[in-house]
Amino acid sequence: MTDDELDMLGIRDEFLRMTLAFGIGLYHAALKESDRKAVHELYMNGKIQILLITSDMAWTMDRRLTAHLVVIKGTEFYDSKEERYLDYPITDLLAMTGRATEMGVVRVLVQESKKGFYQTFLREPLPVESSLHESLLDPVKKEIVAGRIKTRQDGVDYLSWTLMYRRLGQNPSYYGLENDKVDKYLSQLVTQVTEKLAEEKCIKIIDHFKLVPL
C-alpha cells in the first residue's frame, strides 16, 4: 500500500504504516481504535492477507474475521505478577484455533515436552484434567484437621487416590512432572503444602514427619 492510501485511511501508527506497505496488518490493544478498525476493514476486504494478532485480542475481534491458515506462535505468556511463563488457558487456545475456516489449517508452535498434549488436544476429545496440584492447601488442611492425614506419608497416600494421580502418567507435562518419579513428585508436593500450612500457623510439623493441627 502507498503512503497516499494509508493517509486516506487515516492510519497514524508509524510501525503499522510500515508493515501495511508490505501487505501485513497488525492488531493489538496499543493501537488506536481508528487504526484497528482500518486494519479490520482492509483484511475483510482482501486488501491485506496476513494479520498479526496478539493473544489478548482473540476474544474481542469480529467473529467473521477468519483465515485459511492460523499460526499460534507459542503456547505460553509471561506473567509479571508471578514472574514466570505460564500456559495459555485452553479456552484462549480454542478462541485462537477457532479463527481458522472450516477447511482451514492450524499450526501450533510448541515446546517439544508439551507436543504430545497439544497433539491430543487438537486431534482427539480433550480429557478431563485435575487442578488439585494448584489448590492443595485447603483439602490437605481439612484432612489433617479431620485426623485422616497424620504424617507426610499419609499425605502422599491421600494423593494416590485422586484423579490427579491417575492423570500424572498420562499427561505428566501438564502437572509439571518432568524426569522425576511420581512418588518423588507427590512427596515434594506434600512437603511444600505442609510447610506452607506450618508457616501460616495452621499445623505443626513434629520431627519433620508428623502433622498436628493447631
UniProtKB/TrEMBL annotation:
Gene3D superfamilies to which the protein is assigned, alphabetical: P-loop containing nucleotide triphosphate hydrolases, Winged helix-like DNA-binding domain superfamily/Winged helix DNA-binding domain
Domain of life, per lineage: Eukaryota
Keyword presence, Protein biosynthesis: no
Any one GO cellular component localisation term in the record: nucleus
Entry keywords, A to Z: ATP-binding, Helicase, Hydrolase, Nucleotide-binding
InterPro entries for the chain: Hel308_SKI2-like, P-loop_NTPase, WH-like_DNA-bd_sf, WH_MER3
Gene Ontology MF terms in the entry: ATP binding; helicase activity; hydrolase activity
One Pfam family of this chain: WHD_SNRNP200
Location of the MER3 helicase-like winged helix domain: 129-205
Protein's UniProt name: MER3 helicase-like winged helix domain-containing protein
Species this chain originates from: Rhizopus delemar (strain RA 99-880 / ATCC MYA-4621 / FGSC 9543 / NRRL 43880) (Mucormycosis agent)
